Amino acid sequence: MNLLELTNLKRMVSQMFKVLINKIKKFNKDRDWEQFHTGENLAKSISIEANELLELFQWSNQPKSIEGLKEEIADIFIYSLMFSEKYGFDIENIILEKLEVNEKKYPVKKSQGKSNKYNDL
Questions:
Q1: Structural domains in the chain, sorted by start
Q2: How far is CA 110 from CA 43, 99, 100, in A?
């Protein structure tokens, strides 16, 4: 991918996040729910929704419901977007920064095909 294509892709992703965040903000504003969206409450909500996702696999390696998976992952993303917006995080940048960190922690030659934590490679 050349620089122009990468720049256009970043612009499209940025626009997509803005549209999603604006829809989420409107949804919450219309219901006067912003008052409940403290950092602590949003962090708890992310964890709760992640556990609800995990619950769909309880006692099985197959999910109980594909629709349930979609709903829970959507909830996780919504709360994560709200959390990021609350703290002024640029989602694209923090993801790219984390990928850079992970590339250093998990070089292909050491980590390919392994599930070990970086300090056990």
A1: 9-110 (1.10.287.1080)
A2: 33, 16, 16
